[in-house]
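#lab-general

N.A. 3:47 PM
ok so I finally got the sequence cleaned up, no stray characters, all 49 residues accounted for. can someone with queue access submit it? mine expired

B.Y. 3:52 PM
send it over

N.A. 3:53 PM
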Amino acid sequence: MKKSEFYFFHKDEYYKVVFCFFELTKKATFSKFENFSEKVCKQLEIEKE
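B.Y. 4:20 PM
back already:
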C-alpha cells in the first residue's frame, strides 16, 4: 500500500465519521450555522456602508 492510498483511505473514513456525526447533530449545528451566517452577513453589510 502506498502512502497516498493509505492517506486517502483514512481521509475517506474520516469524512464518514464526520458525516455521521454531522447527521446526528444536524439540527443543532444547522441552527448555530444559520445564526453564524446571519451575523457574518450583518457584519459585511456594516463594512459596506
